[in-house]
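User: Structure please.
Assistant: Input sequence and predicted structure:
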Amino acid sequence: MRVVNAMANKTSKKSAKVAKKAAVKRVAAKPAKPRKVAPKSQSRKVAKPALLAGGNPQIAKADGDAPVQAYIAAMPGWKRDVGRRLDALIVRTVPGVRKAVKWNSPFYGLEGQGWFLGVHCFTKYVKVAFFRGASLRPVPPANPRARTRATSTSMRTTSSTKLNSPLG
């Protein structure tokens, strides 16, 4: 039994020495240098929206002017100018217009009457869809490829298309 106790004492003395050495090393170690943190204005950069197929900006679904303006700002190249001019025309022409981004496209409508227009970017054109196009006055020409009279009308705007306002 004495042999076992002697072995246990040696082991416990050895463990105490190892623990003491580790503690001394921890105290003697230099404290870690504080990390440099960038100012908040630099560390929170706003990422540009991703462009989906055809250059359509990917904007989160939301109501209001801000998401529509974010969509327009993210439109690539000449399409951005078309979006700005179209938005200004709609705001000037339709008092109390309601705006939203749904399905990665801006929508324009009136409270209680639903949406009347949607915009979508494609590679070579911007699609402007009038959801109740058949009720427009004057009625737009029918699409020759359509088999029946559509209840919506859309037009394509390209970089050479001129957007003219009926108000000047």
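The longest strand covers residues 114-121.
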